[in-house]
C-alpha cells in the first residue's frame, strides 16, 4: 500500500518536476539568487521543521542574510520566489498578475469558487457580495447576537470550572458565532455535527492530497462532503424562503447572498459560489480569531501591567451597563486599548505566518524575473519585526497603534493588504472585543504550565493548548447570562 501511495504521489508531481526543470533552464540568467534544491522536496522540510520549532522567522532571516530580500527556492513541490520588505509587499498585494496559490488539498476541500481562488471579474463580483455583509455598517447590527453567543459559551464551558484549556474552547466559541451569524444555524445536533466535520477538514488541509481511507486528506475530504451537504441544504431552504418573502436579507450571510442581483440571478451568486464561500468562512473564521484570543490570554497572564490596563478599560464599560445588558457598537468603540493589545499580538505572533501567490504571467520585480506559473511567497514577520519600522520589535508595546497612520504602508500586514485584504477583519475585531470584555471583567487567570512556548502547524498553537487556572471575580455577576 505504501508503494502504491508513493507511486501515485510521484505521478501527481510529474508536471511540477517538468516545470522545475524547464523553467530553470530557460530563465536561470534572470532569476533571483538561491537554489531550488532537490526536486519536489526543495526547502520544504527545512521550513516546516523551523515552523514547528517556533524558529520560522529565524529561518527566513537566514535566507535574507545569505541571498538578500529576493531569492528563489522550492516549497511544497513548486518553484518559488521569496520576496521581503514593504516594497515587495506592495508589489504582491497590488499586482493583479499575482493571484493566491493554495495547496491543492485545500482547494479540493473548500471548493473552486471561493474568493481566494477566483480571479478577475469573478473575484470582484463574489468578493463585493461577501463584503456587503461584512462591512461595519451591517455588522454593528449583530453585536448583540455575538454577545449572546459569548455569554452562553462562558456559562457552559468556563463558569464553575477551576481549570480550562483555552485554545479548543476558543475554537468552539468562534465556530458557534459563525454558525449563528453566518449560517443562521441554531444550537442542536446539526450544528454539533458540522463542528466535528469542520475539525476533520482542518486536519487535512495541508496534507498530501491522496484520497485514501487511511490518510488525513481522505478523512478531511469525506468531512468536506458532509459539511457541503449540510450547507447546500441550508442554501436551498433559504432560497425557497426568500422566494416566498419569509426572511429578510439581514438574517444571515447565506440569506444575504441569495438576495443579491436581479430576479433571474444573472448578477447574483450561484449556489456553488455561496456554498464554497460559506465553507471558506467556516474554516477561516474558525481558526484565526480563536488563535488571536488565545494568545491575548497567554500574554495577559504574563504581563500584569497590560492586563491591568485592559481590565480597567473593560470595567469602566461594564459600570455603564445594567445587569445582563448586552454590549453595543458604541461600547466596542470605547475599547481602543484592548484592540491595540490585539494588534500588537497580531504583529508579534500573526496567525498567518505567510502565504503564496501564483504568477499568471511573467512579471519582474527589482530587476529579477518571476516566471509564469511560479509561486511567490511572502511572510508577515519580516516587516513586523523590522527594527527600522517598529522600534524595539521584540518589546510588547500596544502604543505603537495609537496612531496607525504613522505606520508606513505595507508594513503591518496581519490582515494582508491591497486588493485581497482580509474581508473578515471587522468581524474578527467584534468577536475578539466582546469575548475579551467578558473574560477580563469576570475572571482572573494564571497559566498552569511553566512552558508557554508554541509551535506552528501551520497556525501558532501554545503548548498543551494553553491550560489556565480560573478565579471568578464576582460569583453573582458571573451567573447573569441571557
Count of discrete structural domains: 1
Beta-strand content bin: 5-15%
Q: What is the terminal separation in angstroms?
A: 54 Å
Which sequence of strands runs across the widest sheet?
A: 1-2-8-5-3
By DSSP (H or I, 4+ residues per run), the number of helices equals 19
Label the overall shape. globular
**Strand count:** 12
**The CATH superfamily title:** Cytochrome P450
Oligomer state equals: single chain
| Uncertain stretches of 5 or more adjacent residues | 1-12, 20-28, 262-266, 478-482
Rg result? 23 Å
Overall average pLDDT: 86
What kind of sheet is the major sheet?
5 strands, mixed
CATH-defined topology = Cytochrome p450
Q: What percent of residues adopt helix (DSSP H or I)?
A: 40-55%
Determine and state the CATH class.
Mainly Alpha
Report the CATH architecture.
Orthogonal Bundle
Structural class assignment: alpha+beta
